[in-house]
C-alpha cells in the first residue's frame, strides 16, 4: 500500500510517536493524513480520527473503509468537539495529538480534557499554530511534564512540537529548552522573530509582556 504523503510538519509529529499506544487520538484531523500514517505503521492498537466537521469525517470514514477493511479495522472515526473526547479506560495507554489549530483553542481543549480525566495517565503531543508561549504556560499550570520537544521550519513557518505527560517530572519551560539548537541559523532567526514580536507588543503599550521578553532574552545569553 502506498504511504501517505505528509508535510514536513506532520512527518516530524509522526516520528515523535516513538512507542506503541493502546489508543492514539488524531484530533482536529481534517483529512486524517497523520492518523492514516500512524495506522499504516501500526503505531497504536486503535487509531481514532476526530474532527468537528461532518462532511470531512464522512470522507475520512469512506477512505479508511476502502484502505483498511476488516480484519485491519483498527480505527474509529468520531465527529465531535475535541473538548468532549471519549477517552478509553484509564488503564489503557493513550496519546492525544492536537496539531494545526491556534494556541488559544488548543489551551481550551487541553484544559477540558485534563479536567474531564483527572485520573488518566494523559499524554499530549501538541503543535499549535502561533501562541506557543501561552500553550506552554498553560501546560505548566496543568502540571504536565515534558517528554520531548522539537522546533521545525517549513515553508517560512516555524512550528514547535511539544510532547507532555502527566507522569513526566520534567517541567515544561515557557520558552522551550531541548528544542533549541541556537548554532543553527533558522533557530536564531525564530528566536529573533519571536523577540521582535513581543517587543512590538510591549511598545504598543496595551499589554505588559516584559517578563516574556526577558525569558526569551535569557536564551540568547545561554
Ligand atoms: C487546519 S486543520 C488541522 C489538520 C491537521 N491536524 C494538521 O495539523 O494538518 C484544523 C481542523 O481542526 C478542526 N477543528 C477545529 N476546532 C475543533 C474542535 N473543537 N473539535 C474538533 N475539531 C476541530 C477543523 O474542523 C479543521 O479540520
Describe this structure in words.
Strands 3-2-1-4-5-7-6 form a 7-stranded mixed sheet, with helices on both faces. The chain has 2 domains: 8-179, Vaccinia Virus protein VP39 (Rossmann fold), CATH 3.40.50; 181-222. It is 38% helix and 25% strand. Helix 1 (8-15) crosses helix 2, helix 4 (103-116) packs parallel to helix 5 and helix 6 (185-204) packs antiparallel against helix 7. The longest helix is centred in the C-terminal third of the chain and has 20 residues, at 185-204. The chain has 222 residues and is α/β, with parallel strands linked by helices. The relative contact order is 0.11. It is built from 7 helices and 7 strands, in the order H-E-H-E-H-E-E-H-E-H-E-E-H-H. S-adenosylmethionine binds next to strand 2 and strand 4. S-adenosylmethionine is lined by residues 10, 28-30, 50-53, 56, 81-83, 99-101.
Amino acid at each position: 500500500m502506498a504511504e501517505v504523503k505528509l508535510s514536513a510538519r506532520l512527518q516530524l509529529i509522526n516520528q515523535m510517536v516513538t512507542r506503541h499506544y493502546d489508543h492514539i487520538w488524531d484530533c482536529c484531523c481534517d483529512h486524517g493524513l497523520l492518523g492514516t500514517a500512524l495506522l499504516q505503521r501500526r503505531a497504536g492498537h486503535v487509531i481514532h480520527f476526530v474532527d468537528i466537521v461532518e462532511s470531512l469525517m464522512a470522507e475520512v470514514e469512506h477512505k479508511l473503509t476502502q484502505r483498511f477493511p476488516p480484519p485491519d479495522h483498527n480505527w474509529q472515526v468520531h465527529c465531535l468537539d475535541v473538548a468532549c473526547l471519549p477517552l478509553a479506560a484509564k488503564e489503557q495507554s493513550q496519546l492525544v495529538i492536537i496539531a494545526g489549530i491556534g494556541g488559544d483553542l488548543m489551551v481550551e481543549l487541553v484544559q477540558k480534557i485534563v479536567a474531564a480525566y483527572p485520573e488518566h495517565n494523559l499524554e499530549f503531543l501538541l503543535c499549535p499554530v502561533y501562541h506557543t508561549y501561552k500553550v506552554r504556560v498553560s501546560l505548566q499550570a496543568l502540571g504536565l511534564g515534558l517528554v520531548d520537544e522539537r522546533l521545525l521550519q517549513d515553508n517560512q513557518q516555524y512550528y514547535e512540537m511539544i510532547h507532555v505527560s502527566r507522569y513526566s517530572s520534567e517541567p515544561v519551560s515557557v520558552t522551550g529548552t531541548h528544542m533549541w539548537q541556537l548554532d543553527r541559523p533558522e533557530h536564531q532567526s525564530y528566536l529573533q522573530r519571536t523577540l521582535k514580536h513581543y517587543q512590538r507588543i510591549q511598545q504598543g503599550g496595551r499589554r505588559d509582556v516584559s517578563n516574556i521578553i526577558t525569558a526569551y532574552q535569557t536564551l540568547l545569553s545561554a
